[in-house]
Amino acid sequence: MSSGTRTLVSPAVLARPRGRAVYWTVFTGVVLLFALAFLFPVYWMVTGAMKSPDEVARTPPTLVPEHWSTTGYADAWELMRLPTHLWNTVVQAAGAWAFQLVFCTAAAYALSKLRPAFGALILGGILATLMVPAQALVVPKYLTVADLGLLNDPLAIWLPAVANAFNLYLLKRFFDQLPRDVLEAAEIDGAGKLRTLWSIVLPLSRPVLGVVSIFALVAVWQDFLWPLMVFSDTDKQPISVALVQLSQNIQLTVLIAAMVIASIPMVALFLVFQRHIIAGISAGSTKG
Q: What superkingdom heads the lineage (predicted)?
């Protein structure tokens, strides 16, 4: 630790055994409290599906199920037709992710590195759309989709997802910080603009691409209003809509189990790509 660095606890205090003991005790207590605050709702939801309907509604509630049972998960899987709706969600989320990654990356690269005429004006217009409330765009967006005959079609989810000004700006900011000498070296070697994008820019941008991917997938996975409007066919509805539509005559434990199952893919996705996500956030915070 450099002498010019100021910290909450001085090095002199940490050098003493009592100071180290107090520091690590407080640090461990704070970490455990934060972990409990974040993990307890997850535990409550997972174990709630393993209780009986009477036990779930009991006051005061029980922290541990009296009789552990996975029947709620099996019933949710079958009664709420979760495989069908989960697959619908995967198709819609994957398509939206692919469209958004391709078009937002291309647009961000053009605005950052190709320097088109009126690029700043175009970027300003794109960012101005962030000021428009999402609810104000629902009706014109629905009329456009209906006129194109895309109702009950995954394209009704994919195409509107392309126009994501926030992710485009995030990508552009990252591209702006890429070392220019690397790009110039590629140009000297004869690489064209597309070759530079594919071989140089994209490999260097894996962290931010991971962050944008998570944003794109989560946005579609948790969206409710727009899929509800464009998918009147129950067999094509995503899991977010199906959980509400099919929950009227379902026991509470079965509904909780369905929510747990619906959340597993996003949790698994984060656990698999957490290194890239954290690297992308760190890179954005240090370079921005």
A: Bacteria
Residue with tokens 């629905």: 142
Token duo for residue 233: 């066919």
Task: State the pLDDT at residue 4.
Answer: 52
What would the pLDDT profile of 200-243 be if each residue is shown by its tens digit?
888 888 888 888 888 899 899 989 999 999 998 989 999 999 88
Give kind and range of the element (H or E) at residue 47. Answer: helix 17-48
Question: What three-state secondary structure class fits 224?
Answer: coil
Q: Residues 221, 240: contact at Cβ < 8 Å?
A: yes
Cα–chain-centroid distance for residue 214?
Answer: 4
Side chain identity at residue 163, one-letter code:
A
End-to-end CA distance of the chain: 25
What DSSP character marks residue 190?
T
Q: How far apart (Å, rounded) are the C-alpha atoms in residues 252 and 56? A: 8
Give Cβ neighbours of residue 147 (< 8 Å, ≥ 6 apart).
none
**The predicted structure's pLDDT at residue 227:** 93
For residue 26, the tally of other CB atoms under 10 A from its CB is 11
User: What does the block give as tokens for 132?
Assistant: 């428009």
Q: Are 173 and 212 in contact (CB under 8 A)?
A: no
Tokens of 1: 């630790």
